[in-house]
Design a protein that fits this description.
The chain is mainly alpha-helical and about 550 residues long. Helix content is about 50%, strand content about 0%.
Length: about 550
Amino acid sequence: MATSAPPEIIVPAKPSPPEVLVRLFPGLKPPPSALAPARIPNNGPDAQAALLNALRDNHERSHVFFNQFSFHNHSAHHLLAVYALGAPGPVITAAYQDTHLDHQRIAFVAPHSVVITDENFTDHLGNDQNYNAYLDYFHRVVLQPGATISDLIEKYIFSEHYNIRTPMEGTQQPEMLNRFLEILLHPIIHVGYGAEFGLPGMIAEGLAWTAVHPAGATTLISRLLFTPERTTPLTELEKQEPEWVPKSGVRLRALNILSLMLRDPRFFGSRVLDKHEFAVMLESHGEIFNKYAEMWDCNIESQEDFEKYLEEIIFADMLMYGVGSWDGDNVEYRADFFTGHIVTSALFLPSLCAHISRRSQTLLLRAHFLTSITWWVVRGRPPFPLKEFTSTPLPPFPNSPSAKYPTTLPGPQPTPAPDALPSPNSPYAVVPNPWYPILANAIVHPNEHLCKFQRALAHFGSLYGHRQAGFAMESLSKDGVEVDPNYAYLDGSVFLRIAWLTSAALGWVVLGERNTGVWNYQEFEQKAIDDLEMLKAQGKA
């Protein structure tokens, strides 16, 4: 999908009065819950001042997409991530001016000077030319007296009225939850930042982003979560369902669902090149994804429920991106750009869920899981060789000299003092905590996705890094399906392992290496092709 070309005559959007900008981007609020990510201290007030100046400028200056091919403006995401990691003001300013401003589209008035109202809200959805019209609408909404983040997200993302209206009003269904996870989950990230930092301007931008995204996953999110009574006949692929697939109504844990999907021959040979062809997979396999997503037993009625299902989804995300990207120590790490967004978007689940009801928490986690497993299959459905993956020494202890990425830092290292703990010869005396160089590299790295990714991994490591190998086996065994024995090797070290490999693949810029910029775009598709060729050779396809 390409976004539409700008109007022939571009009329720049009218700037907001300074007093409005200050209300949209006031000082930052603390994290909304204990499960939301903590922040590392900056070097003083200059950091927040630089951040707010850049956020206000971006809000006024730039469009949501920086080209006609659905490429998002990541400025705010980059700046908030490095701020939260402790970046000083000059780094924040440089991150904005040096890596974003040279390629943004200017914010422009919607064609025909469209004004969005409650009455015509659905008539202009899905058209990025109307972004600033929706932004003006949400300015009014977020600045209304008494408006709260909770009320806004509940109404515009999770209510029936802004998803499926019966009877339909206007020219199309709103499907706002569907749009919320479209084009690599960017709207959930943007609104998530607003929920985490308490910024009305980010909420307004994020809801406007949501409104102009397509409703491409109607087959998935809207059908499964808002219209569960199916009205279409079974597809030919559905009729080929293996007899071992659990029947409708069976409820399983997330990791067991991934194991079943790895076995399902209907996914072999899936070949989708990029985000614009996501709809191809939905059209051919949508109801199969729905059946697997419906198996997940996520139903949140308490805080304990939420914490349990959040942990399930986080470990599933680690497998789909992190372990699935690994083909062994001696070859390049396939840091997949697309499944990487599963991880970065999951960081905002705690902040969003701190503001919404148990019903909406259930809808959000189920929608995220459904979108995640779809992207995993789109990108080749790689397996999870956990036994081999977790056998490599953890940084800072050295791995094999033949490894593609050493588990030690590049370049000369300092010599510890004789009384350094635990001893001057220990790798821990030089690198007592590998997360420190990982996060330092993320702050100064010019790739705007790395900081978001490493921040997510570090936070998940703080929540679940204590998990011992085999921790999931007892609960998985209760589902009544065969449990993949590989899960016995899953432990809390996966967060550090994945973060280290990703940092090494993109370059230790903070230590003198070049920025490789190597997020992998297409190698996962090769995995799907190889699987198909193997089956053909075995006479099974």
